[in-house]
Write a structure and sequence with these properties.
The protein has 357 residues and is an alpha/beta fold. It is built from 12 helices and 18 strands. The strands form 3 sheets. It has an 8-stranded antiparallel β-sheet with strand order 1-2-3-4-5-6-7-8. A 6-stranded parallel β-sheet has the order 15-14-13-16-17-18. Helix 1 (94-105) crosses helix 2 and helix 6 runs parallel beside helix 10 (318-327). The mean pLDDT is 93.
Length: 357
């Protein structure tokens, strides 16, 4: 702000509380963005995006740390201007610029693995060198195979010879849509997630939240007397949450430090994804990688891909979650089911599918 006039809007990287600047939108007097400054992890402005009067992006420029312009990409015409090693280059298509980069970088391009049917597919399609490429498909599909993927499966995509699908349901759907010959070019590989630690089958549950709206908490406390529930927040807590200090089985951590978060993920074997509002600190993924059993309600779950479908309960029936925990005497076994349903793959799976490429 300057003398009551808003000049810019600052956007921060996640987590927001660290206040690490991601970009700054500079505003006209009527509040429209005319240029955005982009900052990298080292704190310097590496790019600027320019907008026209209709708030459409028209130009993006990239800079060195010293502020020297290296790349100018005209989003209207598609032209790219490059200043590189004392020479200026002009590319009429972005894909030509990428092919130039690949040639200059000196990489081994015998196998290009990419995960988009847009620009990465075009770079593989137009690249002239010898090689065998693979599309890693990480999205959903509709009722028909996408056009560029169809080219791959029909053998008309140049170097790209196969499609590796990373979601089991999408893989099965593609197999139904493809012909027998096309299906031979489709393989499935899940993700490889770390196993940070084992589950120790302790009745210690964790909730990370920046909201005081925690679904079914009162019911869980009444029905899980032998469970201790740790509730941590990055900020101060409202009086509504502070009132839970009266429960002996609850420990609150307002303004929790990263060190304490680390200790809580070590001390707990259950993660309750039952807070309303946004997720903080990528809690579900960390719980998954740390082999905490993740339970949630259908109106609070933040990352379903890390959970077993049987571990998501109706918000109107919180006692079912409590019943499940009371009856679950083997948390590690439930975690193994959780891992399986999330599509966990191993390095050996990757070697088996990709070893010949």
């Amino acid at each position: 702000w300057s003398y009551g006039v808003k000049k810019a809007t600052i956007h921060y990287h996640m987590p927001l509380y660290l206040r690490l600047i991601k970009q700054v939108d500079w505003l006209t007097l009527d509040g429209k963005v005319y240029v955005t400054d982009h900052y990298n992890q080292y704190g310097w402005c590496f790019a600027k995006t320019y907008f026209d009067g209709n708030q459409q992006v028209v130009l993006k420029k990239y800079f060195t740390k010293q502020g020297h312009e290296v790349i100018s990409h005209n989003l209207v015409t598609g032209d790219v201007l490059l200043s590189w090693q004392g020479k200026d280059y002009h590319f009429t298509r972005l894909v030509d610029f990428i092919l130039f980069y690949l040639a200059e970088a000196g990489y081994n391009l015998s196998n290009i693995w990419y995960n988009s049917l847009g620009l990465p597919f075009l770079a593989s399609y137009y690249y002239q060198g010898e090689g065998v490429d693979t599309l890693f498909w990480q999205e959903d599909v509709g009722e028909a195979i996408p056009g560029n993927m169809k080219l791959i499966l029909e053998g008309n995509a140049g170097r790209t010879k196969r499609v590796v699908v990373q979601q089991k349901t999408v893989y099965e759907k593609l197999l139904r849509l493809a012909s027998a010959e096309e299906a031979e070019k489709i393989a499935y590989l899940g993700y490889i997630y770390p196993n940070i630690r084992t589950n120790h089958n302790r009745k210690q549950a964790l909730i990370l939240t920046n909201s005081d709206q925690i679904e079914g908490l009162d019911n869980l406390l009444r029905n899980l007397q032998d469970y201790h529930i740790h509730i941590a927040a990055l900020t101060e807590m409202s009086q509504h949450l502070i009132d839970y200090e009266s429960f002996q089985q609850v420990t609150l951590y307002p303004n929790v430090s990263q060190k304490m978060v680390d200790q809580l993920f070590e001390a707990c074997d259950v993660y309750l994804d039952i807070n309303h509002g946004g997720e903080i600190l990528s809690a579900s993924r960390r719980a998954y990688e740390s082999n905490l059993l993740i339970l949630g309600f259908d109106n609070t779950v933040h990352q379903r891909q890390f959970m077993s479908a049987d571990h998501i309960f109706k918000a109107q029936e919180p006692e079912q979650m409590a019943d499940f925990l009371r009856q679950c005497q083997d948390l590690p076994r439930a975690v193994a089911k959780q891992r399986s349903e999330a599509g966990q793959s191993t390095p050996a799976d990757y070697h088996q599918i990709l070893g010949g490429y």
